[in-house]
Every structure is written in C-alpha cells, then in structure tokens.
Prior knowledge:
Layout: H1 3-8, E1 11-16, H2 24-37, E2 42-47, H3 49-52, H4 59-76, E3 85-87, H5 93-102, H6 107-111, H7 114-122, H8 129-144, E4 149-151, H9 157-174, E5 182-184, H10 219-227, H11 244-257, H12 261-267, H13 273-299, H14 302-331
Parallel strand pairs: 1-2, 2-3, 4-5
Helix pairs in contact: 4-13, 5-8, 5-14, 8-9, 10-13, 11-13
The site of adenosine-5'-triphosphate has 20 residues, from helix 2.
Amino acid sequence: MSENVQEKKKVIFSAIQPSGTITLGNYLGALKNWVKLQDDYHCLYAVADLHAITVRQDPKAFRQNILNAYALFMACGIDPEKSPFFIQSHVHTHAELAWVLNCYTQFGELSRMTQFKDKSQKHADNINAGLFTYPSLMAADILLYQADLVPIGIDQKQHLELTRNIAERFNGIYGNTFKIPDGYYAKTGAKVMSLQDPTKKMSKSDENVNAWVGLLDKPETIMKKFKRAVTDSDAEVRVGEGKDGINNLIGIMSAVTGKTPDEITADFAGKGYGDFKTAVGEAVVEEIRPIQERFNDYINNKDYLEAQYRKSAEFALHLSQRTLDKVMKKIGYLPK
Ligand code: ATP
Ligand code: LTN
C-alpha cells in the first residue's frame, strides 16, 4: 500500500458488531460487498466491539464472538494484507473522536434514529446513554479515515445520513476537516428479511432462531430453517405485492446465484413453494460451505489472527491519529 496508491484509490470504511452469530443478512447486505471492493479501493474494516456493549454482553461469550467474527470475516475473503482489518476497541482514536462528535450532535437528531427506537423497545430494561449516542461513535469510525464510501445494508442508511450531517456541521464551523462519505449498497441482498416475519429485517439478535440463518449454522439447520420459512397462499414463485416471504426468498436466491428474479421465476414455473424453498436452502448451503471450512482453519490458528489484528490496529491508529490531531487543533485544544 504505497502512498501513491493511497492517493488515487477511494477510501472505504465499514464495520459490523460482534453481537452474536453473523447472519446471511449481514453477509449478503454488507460483507459480500466488502470482499468485492478490496481490489479497487483502499479499504479498512473493523469489528465494532465498542458498539456491541450498548446491549449487555456476557464477558466469556463476548470475547469468543469478537474472535469468531474476526475469523469469519477472513473466511469470507477479507484479507488484512490488502485491507487493514482491526478490532475497534484496539484503536483508541475511535472513542476519543466519538466524544468530540457527541458535542456536535443534537439530542433531537439522535432521538429520530429508528434503530434507537427499536432497540430501546427490545431492551426496555437497559436504555443506556451509549445506545442513544451509538451513531456518534459510528460517525467517528467513518470520519477518522476520511472515507469516501461506506458499504452497509439499507438499515444503516439513516446513521450514514447523520454522519454526513455531523461532518458538514463540523466543516461549517471549523473549515474543511472531514470528507463527506456516501453509502454503498448491495444491488441484491441490501435488506434480507426475517424468514419468520418477512416484514422485519433478518437480525442476529432475533430471539426466534428460525428467523435468521447464521453463517456458522450446520447445513441441516439451514435446510430446516428455509423449509420452515413463512410464505403465502398464492403458490407462484414470482415477485409480487403481499408476497413478502417469497420476495425475500427470491432476493436471497438472486443474491447468492447472480440470477435475476425473472430468471428465477422461469426456473420454477409450475413448481411449488416446497421445491423452491429446498432449492434456496441448497444454494445458500453451497455458498456458505467453503466459508465454514476456512473459518475452521482460521479459528484454530489464533496466533495468526492475533498477528493480523495487531498489525492492522497499528496501521489504523497511525492513519486515524492524523484526523484526530487535526480536529483537536481546530477546536482549540493545546498540543500535547
Ligand atoms: P443486531 O441484530 O445486533 O442489531 P444486525 O444483524 O442488525 O445486528 P449489524 O451488526 O447491525 O447487524 O449490521 C452489520 C451490517 O449488516 C450492516 O451493514 C447492516 O446494514 C447489515 N445488515 C444487517 N442486517 C441486514 C439484513 N437483514 N439485510 C441486509 N443487510 C443487513
Ligand atoms: N452500526 C453498524 C456497525 C458499524 C458501522 C460503523 C458500519 C459500526 N461502525 C462504521 C459502517 C461504518 C451496524 O451495522 N449496525
């Protein structure tokens, strides 16, 4: 990664929380794009473990989830030699800039975030301040690297808009400091829906395990979950209104095989939903199989993983410190 290349290529940043099993939704909506973008952009990726404690985590399971997420993303094709891939809590500039940005983010703006509203309903016993200010930390993640593009699922669009507003506000007060980032969304799979309630997004924190497919689920579990997927009584494999379940399965099939919805409809003309669900399950199993094999290799090689995330964190710190120093200076802090 020479300085020269860095200047020409656009910068990409994204992160995913290690808050449980990574799902097919995370993979099709975000991760698959992360992998594709690595050759054409200067990418940086992170495991957003600071974000994850906005919801209570069991220490032992949390530690394991962070490492699993790291190994799983590498198994999906993230290559830290190409794209620094680090653990958010290892790079202290994130928490520092988040505090600063909190002071340039309005209470009203944060109150409008649908993720905050959803999560405070789900975790009514723990509506902590971190859950509320979550988007300022996400803005810090992105703005520290002067990212041009942020590959995310549609559900994160609102947070990205807020990031842009915070950056524009700061630039307006202090002069040009932050690059204004754009979202980058998958053409198919940008919003994978729950298999049990296809009006809701597939979410790894859904208590109904049949609602989501985990990248580490066994093939027979994946098949079972697809066979149980909620559909409709129309019995025709085509995209249509009021056919949320089938629309979702067609979307998944399309994202996995690269076929268009019309091609999928043609393939299944005259066939029932049972056949279709089996075929979608099989296609997903085949997509995930090599990922699971690579995951098993990585997770058994902890020294290698550690070497990769350490090196990436050093690089990320060096890069992000430049932005943080600029910010502190502009605000008027005394240099250290
Ligand atoms: P949680 O259930 O803990 O809120 P999550 O499954 O929604 O987690 P996140 O860590 O919030 O996952 O999201 C990681 C990335 O995956 C984000 O870019 C997000 O937009 C994307 N993503 C999450 N769920 C879906 C989905 N159902 N379809 C497409 N993309 C998704
Ligand atoms: N909030 C994101 C995870 C995340 C993120 C980021 C995504 C944390 N920091 C920076 C993109 C850029 C989510 O997916 N729930």
